Amino acid sequence: MSPTLATQATQTATEIACERPPRLDQFFKPLAGGPNLFDLPEKRWKSWRLVFNKGFSADNLASFVPGMVEETLQYRQTLKKYAQSGELVRLDLVTLRFTIDFIGRTVLMLSQASWQMPNREINPLEFLNLPRYFMQWLNGRRMDNYIGAELDKRFRAYRENHVDTTSRSVIDLVLQAYLDDSATNQSCGKRDATELDAGFRAFAISQVRLFLFVGHDSMSSTICYALHLLSSNPSTLSQIRSEHDTVLGSDIRSLPSLLVEQPQLLGSLPYTTAVIKETLRLFPPGSGIRQGARGVELVGEDGARYPTENTLIWILHTAMHRVAENWVSPDAFLPERWLVEPGHRLYPRKGAWRAFEWGPRNCIGQSLAMTELRIALAMIVRDFDFTPGYEEWDRLHSRKGIRTYRGERAYQIEEAAAHPADNYPCRISISELGRSRDLESS
Fold this sequence. Notes:
two-stranded antiparallel sheet; mainly alpha; about 50% helix; about 450 residues; single chain
């Protein structure tokens, strides 16, 4: 829970800042199918991170916006359908279907992708679960074949110079960067090859699988929690709607084309950004982990020394983001803390917010994720109201035990990333703003 110790583990203690636990690959293998940027040891990770950085660079974000907007329009139509039906809906499940399409479009330029990834469970006897092992293998093989075929198709397009440079995905940009780098090395000759390099192909397949899983899972959770917090805080909802009207205009019908034509407007939404960061503070989807090493000690604010040899250093974001030592009113939803000047009582403590982690092994897709979340909120929050349906859900699904944590019924549960309990049952309605703008008939 100490930002000082976390900063050392991920940034200043260079011997461990880039090291992952050696058995982490067992957790990710069913998801990614092989070594990936999340679990690779430092020496192998560095060169691959440089290759994939180019696909996630800020310079390329604008090229992803048209696809993001198109997928979000489909999500709006789904929300409108539920608003018109009035039924109780588990928003997280609906949003997961949207985000898998959203991420599939961004990473691989495939719309309406249908991926099925089993949740990973901790089971000491899982090697005896032969049907489960077989299905993991079968689903993984299907994904590898599908993604591999797409990579081969893109590679052939690059060799034949049949590439649409105006509509590219992350993997297109990565492939181009890899081939361009290879072309400068006379011994490689990758551009002259008839087939994609087997090593790059296998690694790229694993990365696409990882990006699809991590991206869609954490994004769905964050969207649901942002809508929940805004619905529970009317003044904040009013402020974010006002910002969208001011920056993006009040004509909802023209918003999609406006975002496509002027994606830079997404960088002019400070209150929306503050809402996202505060949502990620209260409900972070994951945590950080590093592998300790002999001779490396972390030193606390009080001077206490913590040897790290044979130790997993787990940076628990849910605790770091909620302790009073780090935050004023830690359980309160206060986007304003991200807008005040240094020295203000609400100003965040340095290193205490770690939603994307810090240091060289931070989240490679954080700029992409923030852009996606800004688009989603900009296209949703003015048109719909979301009313939590937990009381109704609990009457229909009676069970014993504690139902709230820290006063919150939508507490986080582990389903790969952290998700709202019971997938956030709610009722959706078209807002007064949406009705005034004729959303019901659009």
